Amino acid sequence: MSEQLPGVPETLEPLVVRVLAGNASPYTYTGTQTYLVGASDLAVIDPGPEDAAHLQAMLAVIAGRPLRAIVITHTHRDHSPGARALHAATGAPIIGCAPLALDDNAPRADASFDHDYAPDRILADGEFISGVGWTLTAIATPGHTSNHLCFALPETGALFSGDHVMGWSTSIVSPPDGDMGDYIRSLEKLQSRDDRIYYPGHGDPVDNPKRLVRGMIGHRKQREGQILRLLREKPRGVPAMVERMYVGIDPRLFPAAERSVLAHLIDLAQRGLAMAEGDIWSPLAEANV
Question: Which domain of life, per UniProt (predicted)?
């Protein structure tokens, strides 16, 4: 990834400025990326965690211009909590995904849920907000979370992909809210579009999104096949599968990998291809690879 420092604004195109939050971790890569969209008036997409330095960095870019909306893709704690302080500082409404609060602190690609998120307006698929020379259209993309939205900027062909498509890693799908079937269907939905570039919540811009999304769908299908082959060898628990499937990754990421494998297994069970007895999973007879 190109070098980027927390709090230092970077103009990606005339209508888009990126500001990195200082919350780098094994689950957030270099940190959460906030995007400011517009010129004479603005929207802020994903203001990040509660962080005073990041708030000041956003306000420095806003520089007194009207802030039309604080836009939220989903409510993991590295994306939405910063909305409250930004709203207090500017009066801008919080607009975007629906609230979601689960008592699920399992490891995932980012933080757990923001229980205090309270939007002024919820956007459904296809609804939009706009300002001078810009429009942000909501695209429902459940899977990483059930309330996840991407936002298209039709004036430039850009899409803000949140954590549904990231520029450094595949997204973790963590049950009970994360749903692998929904995630793959949402990828297929994006694959059918003609967006020019993706600006993700983590990682570099994606300048060939169709190729990346096609590869991500293929990756999930490969993981599914790998799981079924392991189960056909013998019934297994999730940790034993992860040990075989994720050779060479940072051990700190094993808990998150277990969540993705579990999401695949739940999807396979819903399709009649696998079943669980306690913590041990087995294939059903028709689960041929």
Answer: Bacteria
